[in-house]
């Protein structure tokens, strides 16, 4: 218990961004897509930061912009139709959006790596996993084929794939879902990056395998002291591994908080709604709380607070003014480290 | 609830089954009459006995010879009571969707019986089979692929009436479809729209309306909410519970999300590799699991409460689910089980109330297919 509290508190100063330089900092990022039907505003001013050894969970539904933000950080956004009209992505203080393609390539893979959701479609089916793993070493470090293969086997061992030496020449379809995800993790780890972005790494897996994979990821993160951005919609996974959480809705961060705080006292009606809609034991046989309505269309984001059509507390001001991310304080005004809520009525939400 | 928990005794059902075989010899119209007859609340409406489905693996092109079989479902028995929800959980590949298809008669069972109101539907044909099919409907997992993109919502929901015209006379169908749309919470004016004009949650409502069209008694739901966003899942679950009360439906609810299954189910069956590992009321399964697989499954589910992450004991299974084409001998779970002994490799454990709990009035006394069944509370923290 005490151990967690320490880990939860130590990165908190980084969260506010003034003491100690975070590993990665996203500042006021905007991403839009030009489509036939108009401009879809996928990300509308996202700010977050991650320090070494810290786990940031980005929570949101489909279309909330959580994956697009990650793709922008990795520099794998399809441009066009995507466009980044505004914003900065600072990696160790340097803005990656201003770098040349060559410079970014040096960071991608060796400094920041990504784990994708669907391992089967992210691995090349016509190349053996050993080839795909060793490619990292050959391309980035200019290793010989033979040495690279030895490294590949080491990596497969590292992520606990049984009989790695025999399986290095197997193809992706010969592995089970959990094993494929391990290979994805191995590939992301290959060059010992400082930051890993995991985009729904276990959504396609069964719970027992999910537990294995999340465990492995946590262990490797501790060992290499990596920063981790975990993108997910699963409130259970987040509660298990995250240090701090950013909740996204319609391309904005609507709430951010350390993990314990968020579950105990949500300060935004959307977060509150999500938490309330989890089936609980004592609610058996009763209606589940459901957030009414649908996630907004990104081509026509509602004016004011994007959540206002679905919000039980919406007032006139919510329909006209976009709420900034207010710092959240205790009733008596003491600041709560690392907390923020983009709601005009955050006080009412958190303090009742 | 108290009536339902009697299910522990499989012997209960055996006299029924022999009666049934006699009835089976009678004429088709009697079978239809039996199918149309109402069932009391709390009585079994569907009884599955030793259901088996093997998919053959063949070799050769011209002269195909069978070289083995994928044992997707391998001897499953359970009862569904009128008005209840039976949840079926398990990992992918455990055969839960195949069970759904067998119950729908979309696949032909290799062996075993499915009794619907005492009639063995695997042996029915013609008018009687059609009558059964009307009464068992399905809601599919993926609302994006289970609705024909070229048909309007009105045509999709109204299509069942073409096959069973007795439910709604021709002139009445449009009104009936609009009623159904209203029942599932969609605007009746949407009748001429196409599926792509709806969101995922709305599409799932259309799928549910189609399932309701023929006033069925049983709805088989195969992962009805897993393709939906979190905030929309609760809406659909609430709708399904409301409809159950309103139309007196029985649900077979197949899903892998254990917390949702617990919320909606009266009884829960846990499947592993084509076998039922454990079955009981929701309280028996979730609070007093006796099968090691159920315990591992429950402990692996992430709890949405950060306070519990240190105190919780987690059982992390090693390895993957073995191939159903070549399942382990004896107990199928033994390759991943921490309790496995020699006996587990030799003897197939039967699904029954474990010897040690027999006759006792504890929640642990429910059917569990393990030689070394013992109680272990793994989720008390939540």
From TrEMBL, chain A:
SUPFAM superfamilies: P-loop containing nucleoside triphosphate hydrolases. Keywords: ATP-binding, Cell membrane, Membrane, Nucleotide-binding, Transport. It is a peripheral membrane protein. GO terms for molecular function: ATP binding. It is found in: Cell membrane. Residues 24-275 form the ABC transporter domain. It comes from the Bacteria. Pfam families: ABC_tran, oligo_HPY. The keyword Cell division does not apply. Residues 1-21 are annotated as: Disordered. Its main location: membrane. The keyword Transport applies. Transmembrane segments: none annotated. Belongs to the ABC transporter superfamily. PANTHER family: DIPEPTIDE TRANSPORT ATP-BINDING PROTEIN DPPD (PTHR43297:SF2), OLIGOPEPTIDE TRANSPORT ATP-BINDING PROTEIN APPD (PTHR43297). This is ABC transporter ATP-binding protein. It comes from Streptomyces djakartensis. The lineage of its organism: Bacteria, Bacillati, Actinomycetota, Actinomycetes, Kitasatosporales.
UniProtKB/TrEMBL annotation, chain B:
Keywords: ATP-binding, Nucleotide-binding, Transport. Residues 1-20 are annotated as: Disordered. The keyword Lipoprotein does not apply. Residues 46-298 form the ABC transporter domain. SUPFAM superfamilies: P-loop containing nucleoside triphosphate hydrolases (SSF52540). GO terms for molecular function: ATP binding. Signal peptide: none annotated. InterPro entries: AAA+_ATPase, ABC_transp_ATP-bind, ABC_transporter-like_ATP-bd, ABC_transporter-like_CS, Oligopep_ABC_C, P-loop_NTPase. Belongs to the ABC transporter superfamily. PANTHER family: D,D-DIPEPTIDE TRANSPORT ATP-BINDING PROTEIN DDPF-RELATED, TRANSPORT ATP-BINDING PROTEIN. This is ABC transporter ATP-binding protein.
